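REQUEST FORM: STRUCTURE PREDICTION
Request ID: SP-0412
Submitted by: Lab K.M.
Chain count: 1
Length (residues): 109
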Amino acid sequence: MAVRATTLDCEWARIYRRLLPRMATYDDRIKDYRGKKKVIGRIAGQMASMIFALLKTDQETLSRVPSGENPPPPMLYDPEIHRRHQEGSYRSLKPGTQPRKILQLPNKS
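STATUS: Completed
RESULT:
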């Protein structure tokens, strides 16, 4: 799933292209990066974390619905929310958590 997502035009592919030069090394002999599996593993981990968060949120929502009442629709992945999260407007799925401040450190170059 993670490998396929890196070939599509989506947020996962943009994350892959951003992380590949940082986490893998470029080999001039083969004219490609070595260590791509580290980046794929990172993306797969992010996907698993997101799936868990969505399922956990739905489970907590369903536990508060009275019996006999129709449950609300499940929370689905939204690319727009993912894009905003990448840009720094993070909102936790856990109820009652305070938003954290994201700091942009200066580059050393």
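NOTES: The mean pLDDT is 85.
Reviewed by: T.R.
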